[in-house]
Amino acid sequence: NAGVTQTPKFQVLKTGQSMTLQCAQDMNHNSMYWYRQDPGMGLRLIYYSASEGTTDKGEVPNGYNVSRLNKREFSLRLESAAPSQTSVYFCASSERDSSSYEQYFGPGTRLTVT
Amino acid sequence: GESVGLHLPTLSVQEGDNSIINCAYSNSASDYFIWYKQESGKGPQFIIDIRSNMDKRQGQRVTVLLNKTVKHLSLQIAATQPGDSAVYFCAENITPPGSARQLTFGSGTQLTVLP
User: Fold this and answer.
1) Which region holds residue A43: left if phi is over 0, alpha if psi is between -120 and 50, else beta?
2) Of A61, B5, B43, B75, which sits most exposed with the smallest number of CB within 10 A?
3) Rg (chain A; Cα; Å)
4) Residues of A in contact with B105 (CB under 8 A)
5) What is the four-CA torsion angle of B34, A84, A93, A27, rounded to 10 degrees?
6) Which tens digits make up the pLDDT trace of B57-87?
7) Which positions in chain B touch A58 (Cβ < 8 Å)?
């Protein structure tokens, strides 16, 4: 199993450009999450999806949109990138009905907005 | 130790010594906690978890201690090895009733193992 995969690994955007970060998991998990991680800080939740067909805002949703394409895939879109969105973005998944709350993380996408 | 919003604390230990990484949490109702390890350039990896009905849980070379009275969590790593150098995060369950499971993460502690 590949676990959680993310593409691209690195991206540089100019202010105002748009892009979509892709995430897929092969563990048949119901719940998926997008986080951002800034230097010296923990992970902050942008959006999450409890199950296929549902999405909800997290702590820092402004400037982002998401799509839960199917059970495997959860994408994050920046419609008009801003320098404040320079960060490392992590996708995660978890099993909704498990006794463990563990979230499995992808390798991250390092985004720079100039 | 770490807490949400602080600059990243650092801890340096000699190889072979034991490491103790601390974490303060804010919600006295939190019922579940996880420790993650994040190596440079990688995503966080699960280390160990503990429920609030326990005070201690042991894994391979790691022990998590939970003190609910002072809302404090610690991760102890025995016989620290160079491969243990990483950032360590604690996370607590903040899932609202009826919502998808959610975790909130501390800012992390950078552990450096010295030769």
Assistant:
1) beta
2) B5
3) 13
4) 42-44
5) -130
6) 999 999 999 999 999 999 999 999 999 999 9
7) 102
